Amino acid sequence: MENTPMTVGGAKALEAELLQLKDITRPRIVQDIATARAHGDLKENAEYHAAKEEQSFCEGRIKEIESKLSRIQVIDVAKLNQDGRCVFATTVTLMNINDSSEVTYQIVGEDEADISLGKISCHSPIASALMGNEEGDEVTVKAPAGDIIYEILKVEYL
User: Fold this and answer.
1) How far is CA 48 from the centre of its chain?
2) What CA–CA distance (Å, rounded) separates 88 from 6?
3) Confidence at residue 115, expressed as pLDDT on a 0 to 100 scale
4) How far is 110 from 46, CA to CA, in rounded Å?
5) Cβ atoms < 10 Å from Cβ of 41
6) Which of 7, 63, 70, 131 places its Cα 20 to 30 Å from the Cα of 15?
7) For residue range 45-97, what is the model confidence (pLDDT) as tens digits?
8) At the topology level of CATH, where does 4-75 sit?
9) Domain boundaries along the sequence of the chain
């Protein structure tokens, strides 16, 4: 099985979610099931069925997170060779050559990617175009609407 790259922050977020599910959510659901059982007939007990469904979702998510955590390779950007190149976990500020607009992205693992937070997957077309390049370089991103040319303004190891 292949290791999946993840930032320190991404790994901590998964670990925190796992802890929340195991220590808070799971015991609450068990209590909800016990309370619903006390109400009698389980066939027509909507509270019981809802709690069992939530339990199933919770247990599935716990297994999923444990599996991910067993396969991750945590990459600490602060410990990388800071030679100015775009690599996994760096934060990159780009300028669109066509309209001079600027955008900043952090290159992260697939599980951490969230474009609304400026986090793009290391497998995305933008990240793929950026990898190995440095400040001042121009890169061409193959987008569905056509090629976009960016100039790399800044590479940060935050």
Assistant:
1) 33
2) 9
3) 93
4) 37
5) 7
6) 131
7) 889 999 999 999 999 999 999 999 999 999 998 888 888 899 999 999 999 99
8) Helix Hairpins (1.10.287)
9) 4-75, 79-156
Q: Given CA atoms 89, 155, 87, 123 in this order, what sign does their dihedral have?
A: positive
DSSP state of 40: S
pLDDT tens readout for residues 92-136: 999 999 999 999 999 999 989 999 999 999 999 999 999 999 999
CA distance 18 to 61: 8
Whether the CA torsion 82, 140, 138, 115 is positive or negative: it is negative
Are 33 and 51 within 8 A, CB to CB?
Answer: yes
As a CATH number, domain 79-156 is 3.10.50.30
Closest CA to 130 of 70, 64, 85: 85
